[in-house]
Design goal:
Blueprint (H helix, E strand, L loop, with lengths): L10 H8 L1 H17 L3 H16 L4 E8 L4 E3 L11 H6 L1 E3 L5 H8 L3 E3 L10 H7 L3 E11 L2 E11 L7 H51 L7 H15 L4 E4 L6 H11 L7 E5 L5 H9 E2 L11 E2 L1 H4 L4 E5 L6 H13 L1 E2 L8 E2 L3 E6 L3 H6 L5 H7 L2 E4 L10 H16 L5 E2 L1 H9 L5 H15 L5 E2 L6 H4 L3 H10 L10 H19 L4 H8 L3 H10 L4
Parallel strand pairs: 7-14, 7-15, 8-11, 11-14, 16-17
Antiparallel strand pairs: 1-2, 1-6, 2-3, 4-5, 5-6, 9-10, 12-13
Helix pairs in contact: 2-3, 2-7, 3-7, 7-9, 8-9, 15-17, 19-20, 20-21, 21-22
The protein binds adenosine-5'-triphosphate (ATP) and magnesium ion.
Length: about 525
């Protein structure tokens, strides 16, 4: 109806109409081949091509489908053999009511033979004019599936040949029942495929989400500070960018670095943190880059450095601000060239390790004051991530307390019932200068001291907390501002004072342990030990 061949011999379809047997064989073949096509688009093109074969090359075949939303018929597929018609036809919409030829078949559900299209008032002369063709006789058969009428199959002949016969109509009707079935199957298949595709996408997203949660689950907390931290970690994990994790002592910098590593494509590879402040410059170099046998006294064997043993993984350069200047130069060269030169070796070796760094001093300030090389800083800190202090996310303390309590109970194998409301309140009020690590130490200590089956009470917490909480509380304990001597053993009072004093000196020195140790008049090693004991590191 919509298209027609021009000048082709009418005889072909007359011949076929007479050859009943071969038509039914063709019909059988067609139904079988249609049943195998699952994509609607391919199916429709095959229907049109095969129908034209059956009705003769002069015929024009079209499938019209019903758009249930608008109750209109449209041409879902247009014959590529007549590309000129395609844009016009794909835009055509025909009301599915009795006023049009196709609409009438939809309405009655009956096949129809129209001997002369142009003489029928339901025929769209305007459409014919637009397509630039003239149709003669038209056959229309309903496409009926289990869901009802889905469309119309039409075959038109040119004007200059005799009209279709009732036999032709009967044949088309038969053919239409197979075509309708094939369309229905293709639609079911398509629905299943989209459902499956949707499901696959959804499962993929859920799985990625679960994995992410798994990777970041160590980071306890739901405060907005933690949520933005996790978002940054996700971005950092997704690219190989150089990350600098900054934050006060005990805030969880190592946890963050490990989380980034595990969520990254290297996540299955090894991860290790090296404390750059804990080694002499020579040892740090050999630790990171390795050494040849005999490179220095005591180097009786060759030794692979961490940059090599962590190949495929990530290394955390912890306390990178404490890296000695000579080592800063060497690290910069390694990062620029992507290869290491083991101590005593003459040729470099390629490395494949992601470098993440962490610092509890403000590295930018260290650069400004000349203690840290600016060029190295820019190499390491392309993506700085600041880990918030515990005070900035007080809302997370209850969840952290539960998490740490659970871990301590499991570690000690001791059934402790939890905190009394007073003890819990104290934990919530504290200043926590040592951040999560101090909280963890407090919980660990309390569980170690508690009797099985008991609650942890205020008296089981350290003097530092009991005196009012954290730094400010410590000031009260130290100064006895109210004139009262706090009722605590001397040992607790001394620890409280030390904790406070060391934390303050460390802060004043911008977190630099070496300088804090000088101010305090003790060695750096001793200060590291004390920081650990007091739960400040
Ligand atoms: N958000 C958190 N959820 C659960 N545990 C945490 C969290 N943050 C820190 N911790 C715990 O606190 C302790 C200190 O964390 P971590 O060692 O990562 O801190 P840090 O910032 O590297 O400290 P430092 O500057 O002293 O090296 C660890 O036991 C860690 O498991
Ligand atoms: Mg650390």
């Amino acid at each position: 109806m919509a298209e027609t061949g021009t000048g082709r011999a009418k005889s072909s379809h007359v011949t076929l109409a007479g050859a009943g047997e071969s038509r039914f064989k063709l019909l059988f073949d067609l139904s079988r081949s249609l049943a195998e096509i699952k994509e609607l688009e391919t199916l429709l093109s095959s229907i049109v091509a095969r129908c034209r074969e059956l009705f003769g090359p002069g015929s024009a075949v079209a499938v019209m489908l019903l758009d249930r939303d608008t109750d209109e018929l449209y041409f879902p597929y247009t014959d590529t053999q007549r590309p000129l018609h395609m844009p016009q036809l794909s835009e055509v919409r025909i009301p599915a009511g009795p006023g049009t030829l196709g609409g009438a078949v939809m309405a009655t559900g009956k096949a129809e033979l129209v001997p002369d299209a142009e003489a029928d008032p339901r025929f769209d002369l305007e459409l014919q004019r637009r397509l630039g063709v003239r149709l003669g006789s038209v056959l229309l058969a309903p496409l009926r599936s289990r869901e009802g009428m889905v469309g119309v199959l039409t075959v038109s002949g040119p004007r200059d040949v005799p009209p279709w016969t009732p036999d032709d109509l009967g044949f088309l009707e038969n053919l239409a029942s197979y075509v309708a079935l094939a369309i229905e199957n293709a639609r079911i298949y398509e629905r299943l495929r989209t459902a499956e595709e949707d499901l696959r996408v959804e499962v993929g997203a859920l799985r990625a989400d679960l994995e992410r949660r798994d990777v970041f689950q160590e980071i306890v907390g739901t405060s907005s500070a933690i949520r933005s931290l996790i978002r940054l970690m996700e971005s950092a994990a997704a690219s190989p960018i150089a990350v600098l994790v900054e934050g006060e002592t005990g805030t969880g910098k190592e946890l963050v670095a490990r989380g980034i590593h595990r969520a990254s494509p290297r996540g299955e590879g090894p991860f290790l943190a090296v404390n750059c402040g804990a080694f002499t410059p020579e040892l740090l170099e050999s630790e990171l880059f390795g050494h040849q046998r005999g490179a220095f006294t005591g180097a009786d064997r060759a030794h692979h450095g961490l940059f090599e043993t962590l190949s495929g993984g990530s290394i955390l350069l912890d306390e990178v601000g404490e890296m000695p200047p000579a080592m800063q130069v060497k690290l910069l060269r390694v990062l620029q060239e992507g290869e290491i030169l083991p101590v005593g070796a003459s040729t470099g070796r390629k490395i494949d390790v992601r470098v993440i760094s962490a610092s509890n001093v403000n590295l930018e300030a260290a650069v400004a004051s000349g203690r840290f090389r600016a060029d190295l800083y820019y190499r390491l800190a392309a993506f700085p991530i600041r880990v918030p202090r515990l005070l900035e996310r007080r809302g997370d303390i209850p969840e952290l307390v539960d998490h740490l309590l659970h871990r301590a109970v499991v570690a000690h194998g001791k059934q402790v019932l939890g905190f009394t409301p007073e003890a819990r309140a104290l934990l919530l009020e504290c200043e926590w200068p040592g951040n999560v690590r101090q909280l963890k130490n407090e919980v660990d200590r309390a569980v170690a001291l508690a009797h099985p089956g008991d609650h942890i009470d205020v008296g089981d917490l350290t003097e530092a907390l009991r005196a009012g909480g954290g730094r400010e509380g410590l000031l009260v304990a130290g100064e006895s501002a109210a004139g009262e001597v706090p009722a605590a053993p001397l040992r607790d009072a001394r620890i409280a004072f030390e904790t406070h004093y060391i934390a303050e000196v460390l802060e004043r020195e911008g977190g630099n342990v070496s300088r804090a140790a000088t101010v305090l008049g003790i060695s750096r090693v001793m200060l590291h030990k004390k920081l650990k004991q007091l739960g400040l590191r």
